[in-house]
Write a structure and sequence with these properties.
By secondary structure, this protein is an all-alpha fold. It is about 75% helix and about 0% strand. The relative contact order is 0.14.
Length: about 180
């Protein structure tokens, strides 16, 4: 999930420039506002894939349709409510909520089928860090240098938050130039 969250930070912060490049007509440019919700929806879908692996190995995937139905029902219901009020942003946030529910429901079931001791504290730290950096970037005037700085800061900000395990810190130290 960590690389996916980092990509979501980058996509979210660079969205105005990406959308301007891909959608050359100004009518498409407001789509940049929906990118963060959709990027983070993809992060939660990646989490869903990870937690589903164990049930696939155990050949007990029948619950997938229940998780998918719960997510689809939430998405449909939220779309009825949010799209009239918020347009495409409503649809984007409905999608995000649906993917969060999909992952939560599937995680609950997967833990019943095949218990895996995920490092949930680390998952929360990386998601909150990614969300905070995205929020900072969204709250400030759009600036390409700021987008670069906040995106590059993601793995660095995780360090003082205690995200990295001792073995990971050792590997990272080996990448740094030697101090004399």
């Amino acid at each position: 999930m960590s690389p996916a969250a980092w990509v979501a930070v980058g996509l979210s912060l660079f969205a105005p420039w990406i959308v301007h490049f891909l959608g050359r007509k100004p009518g498409f440019w407001p789509a940049a506002n929906a990118v963060p919700a959709l990027a983070y929806a993809a992060v939660f879908f990646a989490g869903f894939i990870v937690v589903t692996i164990a049930t696939g190995r155990a050949r007990r995937t029948k619950f997938n349709w229940i998780a998918a139905t719960a997510g689809a029902t939430l998405n449909f219901t939220l779309n009825l409510w949010l799209i009239p009020a918020y347009g495409m942003l409503g649809a984007a946030y409905a999608t995000l909520a649906a993917y969060i529910l999909l992952m939560v429901v599937r995680t609950w079931n997967a833990q019943q089928v095949y218990r895996v001791d995920y490092q949930w504290r680390r998952v929360v730290v990386l998601l909150l860090t990614a969300g905070a950096l995205t929020g900072i970037g969204e709250a400030m005037p759009h600036s390409l240098p700021l987008a670069f700085v906040l995106t590059a800061a993601y793995p660095l900000v995780l360090a003082p938050l205690g995200f990295y395990l001792p073995a990971e810190r050792q590997r990272l130290r080996r990448l740094l130039p030697a101090h004399n």
